[in-house]
Amino acid sequence: MNLFTDPLVTALLATPVPTLILANDAPDFTVITYNKAYEEATYIKNRSIRGMSYWAAFDPEKAGSYGPTLLIEAFHEAIYAGNTVQMKPLHYNIPSAIVSVGELCWWDIKIVPIVYNGEVTYLLLNVYNITDKVVHQDAIEKAIIKELTLAEDLASSNVKLHTAVEKLALVNYELSLTKSQLEELNQHLENRVFERSKKLFESEAKQRQLIDNAPVAIAVLRGPNHIVEMANKKIVEYWGKTNGVVNKPLSVALPELEGQPFINILDSVRESGVPYINPELCAFLNFNGVYQPRYYDMIYQPVQYTPGLTDSIFIVAVDITDHVNARKKLEQSESMLRLAIEAANIGTWSVSTEEKILKYNPILARIVGWEHERSMTYEEAIGQVTDEYRDTIIKVIEQAIADGSDYEFTYTQKRFNDGRIIRLKAKGRVLSGGTDGERLFSGVVIEIKEDQ
């Protein structure tokens, strides 16, 4: 029976909830089908997208520079974790009633993995248009930010006025002194000011030189518009710039940040006075002439010269892009290796060379018929080897552990659950990497069928 003629699926697609079904054929994620509610919600009634790649059917650029990344991460989580994923509100523009004009939209997307025979075969997407809710909330937040900014400017003006009054009182006091006292005082002050200015200039020059050549990225953003007051060589390099960023608002110096959350994060730090720390912050930047994701260990530290009033934000960042990419490649390689091992029905095992503690994957347990909840021991596994091979396999294993040679042995063994005799082929060798530097004797085992 065709899955999509099944009465249950037909009823599901007949609901008023906008629903889309994608195939798990990454990276395309082909559009299988969708219901009428989805056509009306996304304005695709005049064209069919069935059979198209998800990315061809919907232009990723309309979802903002980080939208495709969020969608791919959500798809992968649903597939590999097998969990329903509720995404955060996603910005994706759709055509409006006016030709060639896009309508600003925000979407609430829930991704449900559909499992057949133990594998995620399809992804079911429930899509809700929440633009009115998001726009209304954004307007409220902007009004609050505006009021707070006006209050901050008023407080800053009061501080400056108070400082001016204090200076005026000091001037009046100095004018009341006699001419001789004033001349003597002026001479004394000139000497002190000269010495202090010289030391201050030398100290500031050293500090700026240290900061400018620091091995980590450092910047200072001033005021509610986050004007770049200072940026060292490393952060200018991270931003993919050469110069021309100082004394500009960050949104002007880095226009590629539009649609990304960083300005909002900086606004939040400025308003709350609470530092923002993210050990793996992703940003899409114009790096070496190409827009690409970069990852940073990032700190936004508010600076308050007046308690409760943030004047500047101190930024410290370390580029960890190579580390993150290497980790993701390793995770992908490990995932592909696990899939390959499972597909080939290969059992894996490892034995600590000192204590003979055995570890193995579920496939090995299935091959040898181990059905107990507790772990199988090394002695129990050896005990199931048939008599004609048991002494020999023990000697071969001990020899491989002793001299580090490759281990390869074909033998017969009695299954634990049904007593059936099976023929196995094992390969392995001693590797480092155990706890406390202990060596591990690791390898694989496959069952040799009668026709092999």
UniProtKB/TrEMBL annotation:
Catalytically driven reaction(s): ATP + protein L-histidine = ADP + protein N-phospho-L-histidine
Q: Which CDD domains match?
A: PAS (cd00130)
Gene3D superfamilies, per the entry: PAS domain
Q: Which SUPFAM superfamilies match?
A: PYP-like sensor domain (PAS domain)
- Per the record's keyword annotation, is Nucleotide-binding included, yes or no? no
Query: Which domain of life does the protein's organism represent?
Result: Bacteria
- What's the Enzyme Commission number for this chain? 2.7.13.3
PROSITE patterns in UniProt: PAS (PS50112)
Protein name per its UniProtKB record: histidine kinase
Organism annotation: Mucilaginibacter gynuensis
- Upper taxonomic classification of the species? Bacteria, Pseudomonadati, Bacteroidota, Sphingobacteriia, Sphingobacteriales
